[in-house]
């Protein structure tokens, strides 16, 4: 009986992570492609970003890094979210998101990319606490 309750709780967390991640990632790439000057709003104050080998910490430094990245169009081909059940982030739901897709920078051919990020609830909004984006 206890096992059934745990399984149900896990299923609910997976479902919540799946729904929240799809909504969040859609919003994230809208900002990345069209409203990049607001992208730092989607990160926690002390977030860490590794963008294609360049690491920065803090939302202001993240915003500064993105000022130097050419504008692009992203297409998501795959997205998976896993809830992080033993959260050390003081968040009711934290989840790891894996994204794969393709990106096209102005005047360049489409290139594959992968992104992994940890997302946490922060004041009733989801935000990225760490992020790793890589062109492949």
The level of helicity is 25-40%
Instruction: Work out the strand percent.
Output: 35-45%
Low-confidence stretches: none
Summed over residues and divided by their number, the pLDDT gives a mean of: 90
Sheet with the most strands: spatial strand order: 2-1-6-5-4-3
Total number of beta strands = 6
Kindly, what is the distance between the CA atoms of the first and last residues, rounded to a whole number of angstroms?
A: 46 Å
CATH class: Alpha Beta
Contiguous helical run count? 2
Radius of gyration: 16 Å
**CATH topology heading:** Nuclear Transport Factor 2, Chain: A
Q: Biggest β-sheet, characterized?
A: 6 strands, mixed
Q: What structural class is derived from the secondary structure elements?
A: alpha+beta
* Shape summary: globular
| CATH architectural group | Roll
Number of domains as seen in the coordinates: 1
> Which H/E pattern describes the elements?
HEEHEEEE
Structural account:
- With 136 residues, the chain is α+β, with helices and mostly antiparallel strands.
- The protein has one domain: Roll (Nuclear Transport Factor 2, Chain: A), CATH 3.10.450.50.
- It has helices at 2-34, 59-67, and strands spanning 43-51, 54-57, 72-84, 94-105, 111-122, 125-135.
- Strands 2-1-6-5-4-3 form a six-stranded mixed beta sheet, covered by helices on one side.
- The mean pLDDT is 90.
Secondary-structure map:
Layout: H1 2-34, E1 43-51, E2 54-57, H2 59-67, E3 72-84, E4 94-105, E5 111-122, E6 125-135
Parallel strand pairs: 1-6
Antiparallel strand pairs: 1-2, 3-4, 4-5, 5-6
